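Now for one record:
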Amino acid sequence: MSLEHAILVSLLEQPASGYELARRFDRSIGRFWTATHQQIYRVLKRMEHDDWLTAEEIGQEGLPDKKIWSVTPTGRSALVTWLRAPVQPEAVRHELAVKIRGAAFDDAAGRAALVAEVERYRADHEATLAGYLAGERRDFPDPAARDARAALQHVVLRGGIAYERMVLAWLDDVLDTLDSLGKAQP
């Protein structure tokens, strides 16, 4: 997937200024695709040049004019082509998993350092899960009252929630395993 496709989906959901789009990435799209504000602005200009987007200048009193970005028919066609293309499974590269396997070749002090790293990693995932759950409460208070777009947004969010819960369960298993190894040491 490219940033262009994430932007097309977001702008088809609702046209936006670059600032509004960047905030949308920070708030919701960032659940599955991250981008800096600078990347978003750079890609918006390229997509406009490629006729995937058009911008309408909106005057603002006391502020610089802003551009509201919308998807062109060419952009929609590019998105539909991408939507219909097969998806290749992502290759998983997990540095922490390699470190955990490598702990068998380290001493007790090294394993203690690994425990601290796993706990830090776990805290990050716990915070991400809390953010997803807060977003779910905020954005989907009544799951029964939603249209197709909201239902699909919600199912993506539920996937993120399930993933974070799976990672947390695995990290708990890692910590339990490291703890049992520590107890088995003389």
